[in-house]
Each structure stands twice: as C-alpha cells, then as structure tokens.
C-alpha cells in the first residue's frame, strides 16, 4: 500500500517552518536578546516578512481559509494568555497599591491618546470621516503586552529599569487591551444611531456597565475560586506538578471562553481573574523558578509575529494613501500618542509610581502598538459597512504596527549603544566625583537598611550606633522598626548604578511584615543622589544610609 505525500500540504509546511525557526532562533537567542537586545517580536516579524508572499512566498496565510477569521481567533487567544501572564506576574495586591497610577494611565492617558490619534488620522488620511478616525484610533490606543515584555523582562530591564516601572508597564499593558473596547464601540454606536443621546446611553449601559463592569466582577470571582481550589488541591496533594504549572494558562482559556459566551469583555476579565488568582503572591512564588510561563510566552510571541509578518499586504500601502502620509502619521502617532500626557501627568505628581522625569519619559515612550491593534482591526472589518473605512483601515493599522515593532524594537539597542558611548567619553574627574560619594558594598558585607522616610541625613550616625548593638541587644523595637542588617551577595557588578543582589541571610526586621521569613529575595540597587535605593520586587523602597561607618561582616 502506497502512502501519497502531499508536499504542498499547508499545515505540514507551517509546522515545519515554525518548528525550524524556533530551533534556529533558540540556538542564537542569548546573542539576540542579551547581547544585541533585539526583541523577539522584531526578529519574528522580519522572518515572517521574508517567508511571506512579498518575498519567498513560502508562507501564505491566504491559502488557509478566511484570513480575517483566523487572525481574529489567533490574536484573541494570544492576547488573553498574555494578559493572564502579565497579571499573574504582578506583586501582591498590585492594583490596590498602585490604584491611582493605573487609574490615570487607563483613563486620562488613554482618552488623550485616543483623541489625539483620531485627530491625527482625520487630518492626515484623506477621505476618512471623524467617527471613522476615532474607530481606527481606538485600535492603536492600547499598549501591547507582548511588545512591552521586551522592556520589562530580560537582562536590560533587570539592569536599567526599576522594578516599580516594570510592574507599572506590565499592569497597564495588560489592563488597557480590554479598556480599548469601549472606545471602539463609542464610534460604532454613533455611526449606527441617528440621535446622539440614545447612542451615548447605550454605550454607557452596554459597553461600560455590562461588558466591562460584569467582566471585572466575574473575573474576580473566577480568579478567587480558582485560587482557593488550587490551594486546597495542593494542600491535600491532589494535583501533580505539571497541572499546577499550566493552571494559569487553563484559567485564561476558561475565563476568555466563559465571559465571551455571556457577551462581556474577555481581556478585562482575564486581567481581573489573574490579579484575583495571585492576590496573595502564593502562585507566583511557587512557579517563578519553573519558568514555564516564560517558555509559553516565547512560543506564542514567535508564532504570532511570524504570522503578522506574513499577512502584511504591502501593495495596499500606496494605493489609497500616499506612502509619505503613512510615514507622517506613524511619526506623529508614535511621538504624540502618550509621551506628552504621561510626562505632564508625572510633572503634576498624578502618577505616584513614576518618580522621576527619566522614568516619565521611559513610561511615555514605551506604549507600543501590536497584536491588540490587529485584533481590534478585525472587529472594525466585521462591524463597519463603510467601504472607504474598510479600504483605509488595513494599510493604516498594519503600517502603524510595523512602525511600532521596528521603532520600539531598536530603542533598547540604541539606548545601550548610547550608554556605552557616554561611558567611554566620560572624564576621569567626573568618574571620581560620582563614585567617591557612593558607599562601597562588598561581597558578604552587612549593610544597614532604613525604610524610606523624611528623616534628615544627620540622624544617620545615631542609627549606625544603634545598629551596632543589634548583635547584643535582641528585640530592640526602635531598630526593628527602622531596619536591620543583612548579609548580601552581589551577583552582578557590570553596572555600578543598578546592581542586582540576592539576600542570603537576614534578620526578621529587614523586610515588611508580609515578606518576613523569606530566605532568598531579589532586590535591585539604584543610585539616587547621595543614597543607594534598594528596591524589592514589590516596588517598595528601602534606603541604604551611606554615612554609616563600616560594619563588620555578620558571622553565623
């Protein structure tokens, strides 16, 4: 019996290409990500473009069936899982701790971004109505959680981005994918209704109170129940290790499907469920050493951006819209989308999590446009009956996504190159001035930690004398309130201004009450003026008092 092999079998071709790319990418992944600082999205998109119809014509999603339906389903599943991963990775009760910062980013900043993007499109793109421009602007308003991972994860982020900024970007990018839905529906309600009043009323009742409000409530309940069930199963040894590790992925799929059945916003529900599920930090701490989520995250990122690269219709870029207008729109959107409003909000002290102007610039710049924009584009194509909007929407959105992938993908390497240039051209005198005022931290040395307060630096000497007595005076309440000594092992000496340390021995008074007893906690050291700042994973600052006399090493 002969078995006929179909060499043109599209499924086999896709599996072969995807598997081969992941193999070859894995062989040089450390070089790409940790040496060249290139994002997975940028590399995958370039590969998808090369393999797609515009170049080698090896990968052609147009032959798979209804491309719009495939794109809609693929992007939806990937976004739901990424939103869940970002939520689960946040510190304990993060939305409550940073409620004000998230509220500002999710409403005033998003509304500004939506309106300014709409005005830019209305001004630059010909034959586009104002409501059509608002619909397209809603597609590019959310910050993509997949592209944001390039600046919140990895070696560069650990060395140069403070934990509180990484957490803020992760939380915002996860939450605003769902919040973009009402902005899109606002334009469609006005398009479909003859009267403004009833349209706005339906928009508030359906888009906000039902689709968003009910999704939040359902997500919180499902996440809470899932956490209690998992804890009970783990406590009674009913669940194996493999099922425990993939629990968050299964929860994302279940929540996404359930809330979609009842007609609610699945991304907001996944965000709420993820935070409720990991509210006490237990699941994150139990799974952070397994790195399974990072593996799934990488596979999804590579697959979705290869797909995006292969479905870009290059011929549409210069048909309805002159190419120079697309470049002008891209430059305007990336520059004005959120950078001005985030910087202004930081200057007015409206975003507590953003503490310096440099952090404000960084947070404002990294609002990449990615998978979420393409997902909402598929919704626009489903709902609109405007032929002009259908013709314009695809080249506009895909060009902006491509521009964001390229620009944000090379931003980190450019920052790294500029840092090296500045390091090599700095004068010897300036090095001495900067380094001489810093406390020298050695391997195994004890340091005295003091929770950030408004105390004058003149109290440092008194605190140092009190800390010396800790070995002989156990239970001194004043010392316990202010800090304690820890034996540290500096694991990264490459960058003096941001050294990651691993606490290997500590006194109970070192950490906040809810984190006491932890024997291995990751911290980051940041130089701030005349003090070091030791910042833990939760973004809580503990200040090193530099004027203390040397403390002898703690001996067990």
TrEMBL record:
One of its GO terms (molecular function) is sodium:proton antiporter activity. Residues 454-491 are annotated as: Disordered. InterPro entries: Cation/H_exchanger_TM (IPR006153), Na+/H+_antiporter_fungi (IPR004712), Na+/solute_symporter_sf (IPR038770). One of its GO terms (biological process) is sodium ion export across plasma membrane. Residues 482-491 have a biased composition (Basic and acidic residues). Its main location: membrane. Pfam families: Na_H_Exchanger. It is a multi-pass membrane protein. It is found in: Membrane. One of its GO terms (cellular component) is plasma membrane. Residues 27-414 form the Cation/H+ exchanger transmembrane domain. This is Cation/H+ exchanger transmembrane domain-containing protein. It comes from Diversispora epigaea.
């Amino acid at each position: 019996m002969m078995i006929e092999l179909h060499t043109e079998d599209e499924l086999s071709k896709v599996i072969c290409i995807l598997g081969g790319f992941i193999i070859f990418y894995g062989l040089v992944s450390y070089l790409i990500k940790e040496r060249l600082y290139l994002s997975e999205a940028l590399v995958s998109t370039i590969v998808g473009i090369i393999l797609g119809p515009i170049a080698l014509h090896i990968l052609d999603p147009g032959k798979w069936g209804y491309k719009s339906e495939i794109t809609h389903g693929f992007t939806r599943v990937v976004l739901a899982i990424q939103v869940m991963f970002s939520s689960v990775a946040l510190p304990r009760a993060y939305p409550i701790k940073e409620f004000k910062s998230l509220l500002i980013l999710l409403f005033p900043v998003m509304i500004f971004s939506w309106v300014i993007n709409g005005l830019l499109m209305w001004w630059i793109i010909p034959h586009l109505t104002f409501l059509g421009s608002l619909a397209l602007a809603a597609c590019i308003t959310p910050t993509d959680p997949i592209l944001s991972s390039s600046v919140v994860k990895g070696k560069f982020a650990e060395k140069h981005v403070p934990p509180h900024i990484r957490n803020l970007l992760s939380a915002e990018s996860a939450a605003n994918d769902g919040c973009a839905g009402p902005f899109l529906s606002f334009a469609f309600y006005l398009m479909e209704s003859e009267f403004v009043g009833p349209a706005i009323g339906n928009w508030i009742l359906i888009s906000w109170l039902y689709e968003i409000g009910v999704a939040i409530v359902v997500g919180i309940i499902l996440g809470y129940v899932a956490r209690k069930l998992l804890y009970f199963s783990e406590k009674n040894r009913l669940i194996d290790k493999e099922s425990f590790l993939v629990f968050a992925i299964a929860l994302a799929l279940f929540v996404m499907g359930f809330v979609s059945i009842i007609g609610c916003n699945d991304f907001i529900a996944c965000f709420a469920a993820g935070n409720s599920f990991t509210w006490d930090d237990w699941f994150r701490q139990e799974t952070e050493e397994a790195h399974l989520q990072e593996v799934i995250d990488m596979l999804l990122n590579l697959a979705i951006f290869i797909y995006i690269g292969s479905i870009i219709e290059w011929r549409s870029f210069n048909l309805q819209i002159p190419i120079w207008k697309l470049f002008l729109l891209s430059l305007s959107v990336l520059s004005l989308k959120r950078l001005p409003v985030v910087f202004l909000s930081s200057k007015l002290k409206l975003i507590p999590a953003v503490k310096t102007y440099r952090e404000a610039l960084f947070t404002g710049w990294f609002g990449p446009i990615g998978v979420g924009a393409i997902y909402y584009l598929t919704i626009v194509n489903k709902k609109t009956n405007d032929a002009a909007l259908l013709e314009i929407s695809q080249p506009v959105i895909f060009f902006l996504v491509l521009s964001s992938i390229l620009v944000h993908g090379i931003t980190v390497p450019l920052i790294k190159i500029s840092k090296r240039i500045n390091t090599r051209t700095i004068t010897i005198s300036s090095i001495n001035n900067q380094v001489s005022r810093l406390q020298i931290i050695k391997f195994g040395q004890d340091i005295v930690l003091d929770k950030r307060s408004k105390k004058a630096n003149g109290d440092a000497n008194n605190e140092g004398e009190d800390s010396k007595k800790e070995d002989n005076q156990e239970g001194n309440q004043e010392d316990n309130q202010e800090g304690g000594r820890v034996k540290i092992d500096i694991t990264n000496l490459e960058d003096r201004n941001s050294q990651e340390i691993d606490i290997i021995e500590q006194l109970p008074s070192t950490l906040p009450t809810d984190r006491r007893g932890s024997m291995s906690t990751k911290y980051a050291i940041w130089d701030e003026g005349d003090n070091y700042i030791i910042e833990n994973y939760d973004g809580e600052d503990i200040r090193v008092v530099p004027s203390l006399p040397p403390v002898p090493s703690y001996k067990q």
